[in-house]
Amino acid sequence: MTTYTDEEREKSWIPGASLPDNFPGQVIDAAFEKNLVQQTGKDNVNLWLTIRDADTSEDHRQMWSIGATDAWDIMAGGQELRPAKNQKVLNESSKAGKLMGRVLEEIAKVQLKKDTVTKDERGAGAKVLSPRGHAFQSKAWVGLNFSLWKQEDLIYKGMRTEEGTKDVETQILLPSGFLGFAEAKSPDQEIPVAVMLKIKEIMAVNSTQPLPALIGLCFGNPVVQGCPPAMFAITQKNLLQDIQAGKV
User: Domain ends where: 181, 197, 226?
Assistant: First the structure.
């Protein structure tokens, strides 16, 4: 059987949130999907985002509801959403609509250099996003980078349920602190954690060596040499300089 420390045993008895919360990260993948809603037994159309935690490199795949399947068609294998009825925009009361509103708000704050913005001023965020694509195209969501993603309480008032009309409490993951767009890398361009740790280890031991010597020591190491060449799309020199500057 597994042996646990006193601290590990104690912490195991303290419940916590199962949803990701309080982390910086960028959207590395997006898709529109149909999913079954257990409470109603019907399918719902949802926006799914995969967000990479900037601190831990862990990927969090989260869902924001859009609406009933009879109002939306999913095209191109989840890459595009198309209204099946007269609905031209996302309902702002849906979770996906609330996410979109927050994204616009946070971008507008940066563009207008203001701590708060009005609903009309959120259009400044739309001007930034529109060159990346239509809101109903999954690719337009990829690259969004925020300093914080946090679970917030959300209350839907007067919801119809099997028990009658009542207020329904839930949570929604929303971002703040827009950092710009971080273009997602393909898997063969990602620098594995083991490689990055090895490079940093070599640099720490040889901190007095000039940069050309460090390049030879780091990239001549067997652990580093075993990585795909495409991951060094950034030059070896720039990578080491970024590490020295604390950017990586």
Answer: 181
